[in-house]
Structures
1.
Amino acid sequence: MTGKMWQVREQVKNEISRNTNTKVNFLEFINQNQADITLLVSEANKLYQEGKFGECAKIFRQLARITKELEFNCESKGKYSDQNTLNDLTGKEWLRHTKSWLVVDGKPSDIVHDIKNHPASFPPALVNHFIEFFTKKGDWVFDPFMGIGSVLKSAQDLQRNCWGIELNEDYQKFALNRVKSNGSLFLDVTNGDARNTVYLWEKTQHPKFGFVITSPPYWDMLGKSRGGVKSPLKQRVENGLDEKYSENPHDIGNISDLNRYLEELYTIFTDIKPILKPKAYIVVILQNIRTQSGEMEPIAWKFAELMRKSFSLQQEFIWCQDQKFMGIWGYPKVYVSNLHHHYCLVFQNK
């Protein structure tokens, strides 16, 4: 451990002894992030020596966000109100969660080798943000498109019970391998089709859910060409990794007709109403897409309009990425942006 890191640990110990109201394990936070910080600093120094100052600056921005998180964890969080029926947050923590956007890029430790075969995993920190706000410890979380288990792992880390469904059996097995056995929590993923959620739920005899969070396939985006630039998707294919989730005809990510895709997705959520508590919250992560014809399809907005038939649309939350690959799309004649944001749509069961 470096001298500077040791000083930080000592400062945190002093903060713990002074502040009895904080609920965050500061030393655990430092232990979890120390390897990431060391790796990022080393990479930044290497890029600086090579004169790649722009890439170096991006890493320093990532380090700044980790440092800011540490600073917040070292502050007093105030007192928890017994009248809080939604989550375990104090007023100060609650306020922090209500900002309508968040910059989240996966840390180096988030991307283990096996996860790299999944074409569109999302950072655990993003899932944590919503689970912390919409649930209490011991509550039940559901994900109908579990993938490789980001929601399952987050639920375990935050001491919530979690059940999910995943169509791809390889991803389902990997998701189960991500969570350690814990007798006090229920953590499971069923290999199956989200269209059959109620049938599968009745077989498990789980209680009804107060919170659902998921990131369904963004239409058939993964199967579309992104132009001549060698994008990360093309590089994945060259490296023998998955280009899309599956070839399964039941996979909604293989539906080419947008209206049919939206209707199928909407039906999945309306059909799960029997397993939801009254006033349960649902967070669906989607992205608007530029089609091959050059026009944008506002998938997230169209889906939100459909969902309003059966659910209350509470808000949109913007997840931003700062470390994502930048492609020079359309140059030098056509405007094509780099999409580095996603819509986290918040609904409530009526």
Note: The chain has eleven helices and ten strands.
2.
Amino acid sequence: MVFAQTLFTRAVDPVVPMIADDLAIEVKTAALLSSAYAFPYALVQPALGVTGDFFGKTRLMNLCLLVVALSALVCAVATSFPLLVAMRVAAGLVAGGIFPVAMALTGDLVPVNQRQVAIGRLLAVGLTGNLVGSSIAGVIGDLLGWRGVFAILGSFGLIVTIAAFFAFRGVVTPPPARFNRAAVMANFRSIFADPRAKVCFTSVFFEAVFIHGLFPYVALLLLAIGERHLMVAGGALAATGLILIALHVPWVWQIAVYGIFGFGFYLLHGCIQVHVTELSQTARGAAASLHSSFFYLGQAVGPVVYGYGFAHGGPEPSIFVGAAVVMTVGIACSRLLRHRTPY
């Protein structure tokens, strides 16, 4: 399900020019389809997390993937840009009920001493979906046009939804609690009562600002150890990658540089996620969704921060500052989370 959902995340990007040409609109206008998906995804996370805790995580994931798939099929036959935007907004509103809830479900099903590996595998599936989504969309777009991209991915989503419905029937999960507003507020208070919550959510926000925030500018720039040490190493590797990017190393080294960059980021990010799944035993869905919400808010703020820095200080100083922040996040997480390690 995570793979199917993440396919949709990047699939629209390669076919934006095709959509613009077919619907007779500017490319920069068609590019708003990505924002139409991302912003609702970020903002609705906390509500979906709560829904998963009280409605049932597997049921919510099934329902959300069904809506994402159906919205893609409507996009395949849409004849107006406003309808496309509406469907992307609809998909974004519910897509957050899949990956973050899957992370919370992992917390329910996997013992904490095995959870780092399980979350790592979940991340690998999600990242593979992101990578394959862009690649596959480009190929399908060349062969069948942008409508073919939405039709095929929507059909695939429906197949996965049906398969997951039967697969989840054998999964034993803790019964969801009965919904009431007092319990919702108590769950959020219990999450933020854990001192790790402030560290996890603040760290993932700055991760997104200073790492993912740089991603829109990449084209311009292209001219078994302990968990505590993993977080420091992750911050150091990501910061090193940023510095090498700012130094404009020869293009033949760029693949290695971005490999270091991504490896460092997910070393740090994966460790934070394990702590997030332990912030609350009864509200894991809410905790995981808050984590995702802070991350996507940081990702939305990041391009603005870097854009301002590029305009007023230049690319190199801005990226050096970003590297310093990322390194600080890694060290801070290592120190502030080590005494409350869930292992």
Note: Confidence is low (pLDDT under 50) at residues 216-224.
3.
Amino acid sequence: MSKHTEAKKISARAKILNIQSYRRWIQAGFAGITIWIGLEFALFVAQIESGISPTSARPPGVEAFLPISALISLKYWIVTGIFSTIHPASLVLLLIFLMMAVALKKGFCSWVCPFGLLSEMLASLHKKIFDRQLRLPRWLDYPLRSLKYALLSFFLWAVLIQMGVFDLKKFIYSPYNRIADIKMLYFFTDMSETTFWTLMILVAMSLSIPYFWCRYLCPYGALLGAISWLSPFKIRRNLETCIDCEKCARVCPSLINVHKERSVISDECHACLHCVDICPVKDTLDFTLPKRRLIMPRKIYALAIIIIFSGGVVTAKISGFWQNSIPVREYMYRLQHLDGPEYQHNRGEVPDYDADKWQDDVTGPKEPDKNRAAGAN
């Protein structure tokens, strides 16, 4: 019996074990959580703007959209041992996503990230319009892919190299950073014309060139892609049973030539497991340790994504590193002064500020403290 005949007989198995329906449900679940968090936070801010006490607590999950604050808090934690309570969930979520990358490759991008889901939707629409996935030539693809690493390198250099302990603390406890979550909300709800058309151009580019943002511009994806090199688990191909049908390469959204690789080590692999699903021959493509010492079943992979995320969040809640320490009355005060110079920044640098000024204005000035200094908390 030829390999091709055998492949036809067992092709039904691939359909039965297809994990993509599970992945889409997980994607939809995380997208729903993201939308719910956004609506709850928008209500929280709207009520504060109206001067009334919020009817619901501020959702800490909104801090997932503060990656720079998380990176600065990460270095501050490493060099001082202090886990800042200003947007602590941002750092918790960054650590969770880094843990996912080490354990499960770049699974965050294809299982959790709402922008990844949006990119997939635009890619599906692209295929319906053009009946195929456009692939840029290598001479253009490789330079463009370097852009996201250039952006990542800039942020890592600015934070990890340039900022000392004083600069880190000054930024973390600054009025600008304390209100960064609301500034982020206004970026979407009160966007400028320039911002609007920039987003429209990115959508148009992602429709014309599938996964344009993810493949060429996303610095978060670049970070996870680099970290994913450390993962012992990878998509691995059994050369002895492979029938060279090339189905794995044709369905790969990252355009990886899976059929030519013994182990897929590419930083572009985000472990969507499309290639594993489509492979018609048993034990040919799997997500496994080196030398296939341990194969991770696809359903276990899906479960691992949920366990790592939910386990990290629950641990942070129990240990007290999830909720923001900024009180509601401070938010109310700072919203009224949002146009002040202390709420601006210049390439990450914040102006000097009096950390206790908001309390002095709300409750009255305290006795002079000769140890008080700009930037101290």
Note: Residues 3-319 form one domain.
